[in-house]
Write a structure and sequence with these properties.
This protein has 277 residues and is of the alpha/beta class. It has one domain: Rossmann fold (3-Layer(aba) Sandwich). 40% of the residues lie in helices and 17% in strands. It has helices at 2-9, 36-46, 60-65, 67-88, 119-134, 158-167, 185-197, 215-226, 255-261, 268-274, and strands spanning 17-19, 28-30, 50-53, 91-97, 139-143, 145-147, 172-175, 179-180, 182-184, 203-206, 213-214, 233-236, 249-250. The strands form five sheets. The chain has a four-stranded parallel β-sheet, with helices on both faces. Strand 4, helix 5 and strand 5 (139-143) form a beta-alpha-beta unit. Bound molecules: NADP nicotinamide-adenine-dinucleotide phosphate. Residues 1, 20-21, 31-34, 54-58, 73, 77, 95, 97, 143, 145-146, 154-156 line the site of NADP nicotinamide-adenine-dinucleotide phosphate.
Amino acid sequence: MYAVHAAAATDAFEVIRGDRSGTGQPGSIEIDIVNASSVDRAFRLAQPDFVLLLAAMSDIDRCEVLPEQAFAINARGAETVANACARTNARLLFTSSAAVFDGSKHGYREEDAITPLSVYGKTKAWAENAVKTLTPSAVVIRIALVLGFARENGTNAMLDSLTGRWKAGEPVFLSTREERNPIDAASLSKMMIDMLADHSVSGVYHVGASDSISRYELGKCLAARMGISAELVRPQDDPIPGRAPRGKDHFLLTEKIRRLYNLEIQSSSQVIERCFS
Ligand SMILES: NC(=O)c1ccc[n+]([C@@H]2O[C@H](COP(=O)([O-])OP(=O)(O)OC[C@H]3O[C@@H](n4cnc5c(N)ncnc54)[C@H](OP(=O)(O)O)[C@@H]3O)[C@@H](O)[C@H]2O)c1
């Protein structure tokens, strides 16, 4: 997802990418958010005015089997970055998740009680609290599902994983019971940059389409849009044993951000179309 953020940001900001592998490329800096001295060093070198904290262990199933590592990255790592932002007066935007809710009702507002089911959701809930406490001016964005093609390998991008398997002629099994309201990476990036630049905005905001769609229906729409045989999209009706618990209905209500920016919230089908434009 990073390249899209960078592309959206470069008009307004000088962008420095934080990366734990330390690519050494111009405009990038080594940072491991689990390591406080690495975070301090990166802040000293980059002296950021604005910080977009995307780094996370984002694979929900991996978090479930490696809870300590998930907590160290997603919770304590976010806390360490928030601490550095507070110390240096940098403005922070933190990406959280609809997984802070249990998905047992249709439609969640920003102020609804937090009820995470998975380790991932719990780490994000913990991080939100740390971010809000340490950096009250921070923006916390909750997202149900981002759609977009990544510009590098090895990311969490659902579209890349689907197209990789479809190109290999493999069918994908997608849940008929998990509903999400997606947002495309380009719209999300623009929204995040606007919010980061707008010092009058703070607190939690939900983003996403005006309607929710099951992963199976989403897969069918994507396959149709890409000219992939419908045969390669198969329904998965029951939760897969051994995977992290996932809420049924993660529909994030977006009235708050709609009012803030007088936005026209896109439908799921418009969001899908935007991924290809
Ligand atoms: N994609 C979605 O649908 C979705 C939905 C809700 C919320 N979110 C949130 O949005 C953010 C971005 O998600 P994404 O889908 O773009 O995830 P992603 O592709 O997995 O990217 C996460 C990045 O975090 C980096 N990272 C992991 N541990 C780190 C550490 N200790 N120090 C520094 N960097 C570290 C990873 O780098 P390595 O390559 O080194 O591992 C990776 O580049 C995450 O906070 C995620 O929880 C995403």
